[in-house]
Amino acid sequence: MQEFQGIVTDFWIEERNAFLLLGDHKISLLPYVGQNFSIDILDETMCLHCHKMGEELTRGECPHCVKRLAHNDLCYVVPSLCHFARGSCREPQWSQHICFQEHILYLSQTSDLKVGITRRTRFKERLLEQGAWQGLSLGVFPTRMAAGKVEKKLSEFIKDKTAWKKMLTEQDVALIDLVSEKEKLTSFLGKDCQEHHEHYTFNYPRLELEKTSMIKLEIGLGISSRLLGARGHYIILSDGFIHSGKLLGRKINLKIN
Fold first, then answer.
1. Mapping DSSP to helix (H, G, I), strand (E, B) and coil, where does residue 148 land?
2. What does the alpha-carbon distance between residue 146 and residue 168 come to, in Å, rounded to a whole number?
3. What pTM was computed for the model?
4. Were both Cys, which of 20, 54, 145, 253 would link to 27 (CB 3.0–4.6 Å)?
5. How many angstroms from the chain centroid is the CA of residue 83?
6. Measured in Å, how far apart are the chain's first and last C-alpha atoms?
7. What is the pLDDT of residues 34-72, one digit of tens each?
């Protein structure tokens, strides 16, 4: 048996593996698939940004940081609402570095056909975070806001959100012809769009899911379940799914046997 204890500070997905950063331990999940995971949620939290202890957390951040940081503002999710030019950005320097770099507008197949945007440098990473079967770039835009304006137009007839349960439970999905879908959308891309073609497809192991509900995390309520895998932001156990964001900033005790 292996045992780890500490604050969960990160979770990320790669093409054939997923990793949990727990205290000083970087835990690769792939070697433990099929083994029993016992997780105890302890009564200790830490904001991953300001490091304040004992706060209620949202995706690992305390209420103060949720209100203060630009990546939590609505305009980061809906870039067409960007208010940088009005001088009211929460973090102008951060936004200049993040929002004013090139962004890809893309189509992906997650639970359904979906449109989205991401920084050009992290397209593949973003697709894996969403548990996508595949993704195809539509074009490159000079800023997040420019890409977001076109995304908003396309979202009138293409979904811009993933149905997490459908994404996690569907098996043997037929791939959509994203190239054909892209050809239908060229007239919407506009003059700010630079032609770009980047296409990824991903394979996921077939899972024999026993339960398909979200596991509720509570202090003092232990979880003991067999690890089946990970996809997108989710850890998949025989008793259901854990959204990794619910673990961020929490102190846990993890036993694997």
1. helix
2. 31
3. 0.94
4. 20
5. 24
6. 5
7. 999 999 999 999 999 999 999 999 999 999 999 999 999
